[in-house]
Design a protein that fits this description.
This protein has 362 residues and is of the alpha/beta class. The chain has helices at 6-14, 21-31, 34-39, 42-46, 53-61, 65-78, 92-95, 128-142, 156-166, 188-197, 214-224, 239-249, 267-274, 283-290, 307-319, 324-331, 335-347, and strands spanning 80-84, 103-108, 117-121, 147-150, 171-174, 199-202, 228-231, 253-256, 278-279, 322-323, 351-354, 358-361. The protein is built from 17 helices and 12 strands. A 9-stranded mixed β-sheet has the order 1-2-6-5-4-3-7-8-9, with helices on both faces. Strands 10-12-11 form a 3-stranded antiparallel β-sheet, with helices on both faces. Helix 8 packs parallel to helix 9 and helix 15 packs across helix 17. It comes from Geosporobacter subterraneus DSM 17957.
Length: 362
């Protein structure tokens, strides 16, 4: 394989231990192209300001055509692209924050329409209510042409991405690891769907494993890509509150979904509201505050339902999120029959069953 694409060299230099994005800026300013860094002599590398002897040693030790070929193969297989902050197609919202990533690695693509983006974040150990709220808000925003940004974590993040995708909209996942690594691993299928219908992005080099220290920096990208940040559920020491704080520093609007005062997962959101965050009960609360003119809502095609299916659907709308057994008791219909009809309503695309047999509408 011939290594002709300079981005292969950029990924190579980024993968070297000790070479962060600030070092890459200095090296690129000096050598202009990644291949020139690969070909540079030891003395030339030592002349670059801020590049110490250890980094020079690591660069020289990692010069390998075999490594370049492995990187090139991975880039081709996963269809990875890289944006420089100076590129015309770099996300404008992100470019305008303090300390935007010099390099943004990506699976999928970012479109001009993604300038109208809203971040939805929250607890990993979200309650059924939190997952329902994230899914519902994301879906309704996506149907109005708003791109949903989140971090692909368990709980609220996952529900937000799924809500956008199920509504036929776009969503962007920002990772705290390389875009070639799925974290959490159980979100593998979700990651592929996001890459196909939106974008999976990271400032971290290929092969970078998730690390607790990466996520606060990752959060500035989530808020930076967005016009506003919606916090659905969060404890008082939640990482979502870090995202909210970064959003305020970036001049973004912060929204919070109110929750039960007895639920610790709502304590962070309720505190944000006390401190001036916009209370959210529906998508209009978000759109009006951001002054975003939405596209026309994608209406569902009329779906024929039997009398019993209609009763079940209407009760879920009224009581959601609701447990399967509670639904059966409320309707006084045998649970096995309800379960069978729930499957039909899922096939018709009207409801979703969350883990724990919790039911919500789409």
């Amino acid at each position: 394989m011939n290594i002709r694409d300079d981005k292969v060299y950029v990924h190579w230099i980024h993968s070297i231990q000790g070479v962060g994005q600030k070092n890459i800026v200095k090296l690129m300013e000096t050598f202009n192209f990644g291949k020139n860094i690969f070909d540079a002599s030891e003395s030339q590398l030592k002349k670059v300001e801020g590049i110490n002897e250890k980094i020079v040693h690591n660069i020289l030790e990692n010069r390998s055509q075999e490594q370049l070929h492995r990187i090139a193969e991975k880039i081709a297989r996963l269809k990875i692209s890289t944006l420089c902050v100076k590129a015309d197609n770099y996300p404008e919202n992100l470019r305008n924050i303090y300390d935007p990533p010099f390099l943004l690695h990506m699976r999928g693509c970012i479109l001009e329409q993604d300038q109208k983006a809203v971040a939805i974040v929250g607890a990993r150990k979200a309650t059924a209510y939190g997952k329902w709220a994230a899914y519902k808000l994301a879906g309704e925003l996506a149907r109005r042409g708003i791109t949903i940004v989140s971090g692909m974590a368990y709980g609220v993040d996952t529900a937000a991405h799924k809500g956008a995708l199920d509504a036929g909209g776009r969503t962007i996942a920002v990772l705290g690891c390389g875009v070639d690594i799925c974290y959490p691993k159980t979100n593998g299928q979700l990651m592929e769907e996001i890459a196909a219908k939106g974008a999976v992005i990271s400032e971290y080099a290929l092969g970078t494993e998730p690390n607790a220290g990466h996520f606060p920096a990752r959060n500035r990208i989530i808020s930076g890509l967005s016009k506003g940040v919606v916090v659905v559920e969060a404890g008082l020491k939640s990482g979502s509150l870090i995202t909210a704080a970064m959003a305020l520093e970036q001049g973004r609007e912060v929204f919070a979904v109110p929750g039960n005062i007895n639920n610790m997962m709502s304590a962070g959101c309720n505190k944000l509201i006390q401190e001036g965050a916009k209370l959210v009960t529906n998508v209009e609360d978000i759109l009006c505050e951001l002054d975003i003119v939405p596209e026309s809502v994608n209406k569902k095609v009329n779906i024929e339902l039997s009398e019993t299916e209609t009763r079940i659907y209407e009760k879920i709308v009224e009581k959601q999120p609701i447990h399967l057994e509670a639904l059966s008791n409320a309707l006084q219909i045998d649970i096995h029959k309800v379960s069978s009809l729930i499957t039909i309503l899922q096939i018709k695309g009207l409801i979703e069953q969350l883990p724990g047999k919790i039911l919500i509408t789409k």
